[in-house]
Write a structure and sequence with these properties.
1 helix; single chain; about 230 residues; 2 domains; mainly beta; globular; 17-stranded mixed sheet
Length: about 230
């Protein structure tokens, strides 16, 4: 019952923000309003972020919060789907309305071991201290992730760049690059099985490798470059 109530509160908060923005806009061709979402008992965040800047920070907290301004130009407000909390997964989605370009400057704060599923069409993303599974699908986005303890990383990067610094070795990494670049800094002395399928580009593996290693890195490069470096 507590989880249900929190989810409802989050929905009400977001609905009020967007409705107020739509009412106040009038004939103004652009508008900016704040997003405010909070929820407890969340195991995974499934976030479709708007274009712009997004920071995702792990903290010693049991609560997930998303906050920050969203700006749009045009006569249609940002389209939001959620928040919706189901089976421990908090679903949040924001996209620009037709003929109304939009940008956000959002900060997501999560418990350290919360999983992240992220989709974003353009912009810049920073991550810090995450220890849950990561699944990322981005286009025209630069991602900088530091202090990672995530057990797994699955990323698809199109026309963008991913830089990741792991302080503990992940068990499984799967990367797909399309006109993209990625650099992963991994703890030294930990061997990996590295599997690569390269159409155009290269994989530079400056890490320990072993055929029977329990940790696995899979790279599919349509066009791009991947560097695996020991730190």
């Amino acid at each position: 019952m507590a989880v249900y109530v929190l989810a409802v509160v989050a929905v009400v908060l977001l609905t009020i923000v967007l409705a107020a923005a739509a009412r106040d806009r009038g004939d103004n061709p652009s508008a900016t309003r704040m997003v405010s979402v909070a929820a407890d008992s969340v195991r995974t965040i499934d976030l479709q972020a708007p274009p712009g800047q997004l920071s995702i920070d792990a903290a010693r907290t049991g609560r997930v919060t998303l906050s920050g301004p969203v700006h749009w130009a045009g006569r249609s407000a940002v389209i939001a789907d959620g928040p919706r909390l189901a089976d421990g997964v908090l679903h949040l989605a924001y996209r620009c309305a037709a003929h109304s370009p939009c940008t956000g400057r959002l900060r997501l704060v999560v418990p350290q071991h919360c999983g992240i599923v992220l989709r974003q069409p353009s912009g810049h993303v920073t991550m810090d201290g995450l220890a849950g599974p990561l699944r990322i699908s981005v286009r025209s986005v630069d991602i900088s992730a530091a202090g990672l303890r995530s057990p797994s990383l699955t990323a698809s990067v199109t026309s963008g760049h991913l830089s990741g610094w792991f302080v503990s070795a992940p068990g499984r990494v799967s990367l797909t690059l399309v006109s993209g670049q990625a650099t992963l800094h991994l703890p030294a002395g930990v061997p990996y099985r590295v599997s690569q399928q390269v159409t155009s580009g290269y994989v530079q593996a400056g890490i320990a490798q072993a055929r029977d290693a329990g940790r696995m890195i899979t790279a599919r490069i349509i066009s791009g470059e991947l560097e695996l470096l020991s730190r």
